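Please predict the structure of the following assembly.
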Amino acid sequence: MILLKFESEEILETFKMLHMESLDIRTVTLGINLLDCIGGNTRETSANIKRKIRKIADNFVETVNSVSNEFGVPVTNRRIAVTPTSLLLGGSPTPGSAANIGRALDESAKNVKVDFIGGFAALVEKGITKADVAVMDAIPTVLSRTSRVCSCVNVASTRAGVNIDAVNIMARKIKETAERTRSRNGIGCAKLVVFCNAPGDNPFMAGAFHGVEEGEATVNVGISGPSVIRAAVENCDGSIDKLSDCIKRAAFKMTRAGELIGREVANRLGLKFGTVDTSIAPTTAKGDSVADVVESMGIERCGVSGTTAAVAMLVDSLKKGGMMACTRIGGLSGTFIPVSEDSKMNERVKERTMSLQKLEALTSVCSVGLDMVCVPGDTDESVIAGMIADEAAIGVVNDKSTAVRVIPVPGKKAGQTVNFGGLLGKGTIVNVTKWKPAKFLARGGHISRTIRSAKN
Amino acid sequence: MVITAVGNDRVGIVAKISNAIASVGANIEDLTSSRLEDKFVMLIVCDVRSKKFDELKRAVTSAGEKLKMSVVVQREEIFKAMHRV
């Protein structure tokens, strides 16, 4: 049956994806350069930041809402990413100044009605400046005293190797942040990501920031859609090649929807469109789960042998479908496996079919790595540093982004659960070894770049 | 614009939705029906000035509520983007 412009099957498929398979645009993120806000002192810089964000983003939320309404595509989050704070401290590289900028970012987010602003960040993969130290020192204060600021620190890269000194500092800051938000189960750590190879156009929180290589202001989009991919997988018989093809087709459509929304928002705001991040990102809603996608492929329980291969195929297919759909693919473009945010994944962690070790293995094939993983509150700082170092090593050697967003939940032991609420979901505290990598990491220094990375 | 109305089949669906569309001065370019699982689906492509989008959406959503149908109004570019290479 053919309508004048579209086949009815095309309209019905879109209706199903949007209304029965929960397709949404997970985030439209406005990246803003703040380098021109640096003033003679922190007060001046803060005022400039607030003025600039209001000027550029005043109509941002309203515009995204209009575009979402007109195209009938839900947009879950509207967010802002800014230049890493460590680059904004100018002649005042102190934790107090960094905290003041954090407060200005929080106020700016409130002013323009976005729920999160990312970029309280430092890039320390090679060396650590005074300003980087100031930002890292201020992280526990900022994440406990603000509600909308997200923070990330890049401690490793394929070109620089792993900065173990920075890894150790960040393990300490994670513990401090958990303690400072003790009354809320250490929720401050949900807003803190430690990265390897962090991209400057990632639209997803908590790791979004506006890289120095980016333009003045750009609109980046993150798609969603585990449910859509699960439906595509469930309706697909045949070989793994066929399965990959089904995922590619669904990814193509999702990416196209994301690009359309992003370009329209950018156009209406008079800004540049940046990239689409093709990562699928789960929610706590039943079925909107990456673990469900894996199990739909024929893995009896997500986490058992075969899971890494299945996720590798999934990510490869998402990328290929996404790249066919849109030339401007960016950010992390893999798949997220945040444990507490994915109800099925958390279920598998609870029943111990998914382990910390398997999550680490999945790092080698997905967007990031140990994401929204809850560990006992008394986990030793060096064990957390070891987790970060392991993830960073995988990222350095495999030339990919990896990250750790781990929550040492104060007062909780392995096997207990914690409810963060909303999209952050419920997490089961995983068992962590009592054996420590403390002496190795206390040596400090650098794990240098690989020979393979010296490409010239 | 593309209007998708989904619900149980009953008397008066075409009449009531069409009336709502006409009430804002929109012209129906094509109309067809289909089924989605066990539900009746009506698909309409209509031409309306973009300024009247909200008015059209209110009118057909209200008609849909009376018919106990779920009604979605979307700009057609979304279908072009998702389904055409």
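Chain A has a mean pLDDT of 95. Chain A touches chain B through 26 residues (CB under 8 Å).
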